Amino acid sequence: MQAGSGVVLIEVRPDRSSSGLAELRLLSESAGYAVLNEFEQTRYYDPSFCLGRGKAEEIARMLEEIKPLKVIMNNPLKPIQKYNLTKLFGAEVIDRFQLILEIFTKRAGTIEAKYQIELAKLQYELPMARENVRLAKMGELPGFHGLGKYQVDVYATMIKRRISYLQRRLEEIRTRKSMHRRRRRKEALFSVALTGYTFAGKTAIFNYLTKETMLVGDALFTTLSTTTRAFCLSNRKILLSDTVGFIDNLPHLLVDAFYSTLEEVTLADNVLLVLDSSDPLPEFTRKLRTCLSTLNEIGVFSSAITPIMNKTDVAIDLEPLEEEVIDLLGARPVKTSAKTGDGVSELLEAISDRLPPYERLKLRIPFSKNTSSLISWAFEEADVRFVKYYEDVVEMEVHMHPAFLPRFKRLLYGIEGVEVQSQKEVKIRRE
Ligand SMILES: Nc1nc2c(ncn2[C@@H]2O[C@H](COP(=O)(O)OP(=O)(O)OP(=O)(O)O)[C@@H](O)[C@H]2O)c(=O)[nH]1
Ligand SMILES: [Mg+2]
């Protein structure tokens, strides 16, 4: 943590709903800040200060001693509120959205993620651009630096141009990616996506299953870009994707920007929803609801979801959490610990249960010039359960994804005198 990185957190709640300060603290620490103090107030939002003027002045007096680098509000702030608070506190004031943007900016590893974050930031600024320039002209304050020199309209036009440039570039990247995906679909691989609230242990599970070494974080939002790797299960190749974590109250702009990386999720055959079972019940439920509504928003419905209660090694009482999952999802969760490996075989079984049934073929194939290429194709692309070589014939049992059947049939038809006894109905010429 850098020196001088102390921050003060504030939240205003219009009712007695539960506090969001604990999560704001984790977010602040994830951004590299040390939290010096926290304040909260229950009242209606004030148009000038967000919190009540009296409370704001009281906090300002305390800040004179603490001298934080920034003050972070858990509430979305209008330019005028930010300006007034910055002036009063003598420190830059940012809101939750800007804090999340800071974390995302630090973590963005790919050019796509960098563009997405810049796009979200500009879309956030655009409606406030005029007001921000107007306020900056009244006197420069932290967070409003450099804006005073612009004409109001010039600044807004600059933002709009940059937004459309970023949108075009992102579109290009997405087209390239969707071509890759189409190719994978053609290869008929079964795809599984890991989703869940940030810090639930998605990457830890991903690494466990794929023997990868992707970064498992001690902070929120360690993973920003989707990573996809293949692994083998019941002799079948599965594509597994690790994705960006969800969070409550993620402003829509950031949601839109990041949902494009979640396309893998919308196209997945099976969506794993990773939950942190070391959370107390109210926290667990809040996160579960956020995940379900986020998944719903991107078009993933309960039937495609396999819930996973992870971190069982540090959980206290799993039963009420499990009931909550069954209640909200209608499915029994798989319980895992990515740390000890407990429950991972049950998880693999659950994934396996969702695999579409394979075609099973029993064959007697005479040796002729195309037989060996059929056999090597089968070993490479299908699941060869049994093979026995006789003098002039090979007997084999092959299981394969239905999408591979046409190709297999073509190879088979190239061989003279083929015999097929299929367990499913497969119409292949018998000699
Ligand atoms: N005790 C325990 N810790 C775990 C387990 N799985 C993950 N963790 C820890 O939980 C933290 C978050 O793990 P990640 O795998 O980075 O979580 P994530 O869901 O990928 O998080 P984001 O990428 O930030 O969305 C790390 O400190 C892990 O070591 C588990 O089964 N048991
Ligand atoms: Mg991760």
Detailed description of the structure:
The chain has 431 residues and is an alpha/beta fold. It folds into 4 domains: 6-105, 3-Layer(aba) Sandwich (Rossmann fold); 116-169; 188-354, P-loop containing nucleotide triphosphate hydrolases (Rossmann fold, 3-Layer(aba) Sandwich); 359-422, ACT domain (Alpha-Beta Plaits). It is 44% helix and 20% strand. It has 15 helices and 14 strands. Strands 6-7-5-8-9-10 form a 6-stranded mixed sheet, sandwiched between helices. Strands 2-1-3-4 form a 4-stranded parallel sheet, with helices on both faces. A hairpin with a 3-residue loop joins strand 12 (383-389) and strand 13 (393-400). Helix 1 packs parallel to helix 4, helix 5 runs antiparallel to helix 7 (152-186) and helix 6 (129-137) runs antiparallel to helix 7. The longest helix has 35 residues, at 152-186. It is elongated and about 95 Å long. The N and C termini lie far apart (75 Å). Mean pLDDT is 86; it is low at 424-431. The structure holds guanosine-5'-triphosphate and magnesium ion. Magnesium ion binds next to helix 8.
Strands, helices and their partners?
Blueprint: E1 6-13, H1 21-30, E2 34-42, H2 53-66, E3 70-73, H3 79-89, E4 92-95, H4 96-107, H5 111-125, H6 129-137, H7 152-186, E5 190-196, H8 202-210, E6 227-233, E7 236-242, H9 252-259, H10 263-267, E8 270-276, H11 281-297, E9 305-310, H12 318-329, E10 334-335, H13 344-354, E11 359-366, H14 371-381, E12 383-389, E13 393-400, H15 405-413, E14 419-422
Parallel strand pairs: 1-2, 1-3, 3-4, 5-7, 5-8, 8-9, 9-10
Antiparallel strand pairs: 6-7, 11-13, 11-14, 12-13
The structure holds guanosine-5'-triphosphate and magnesium ion.
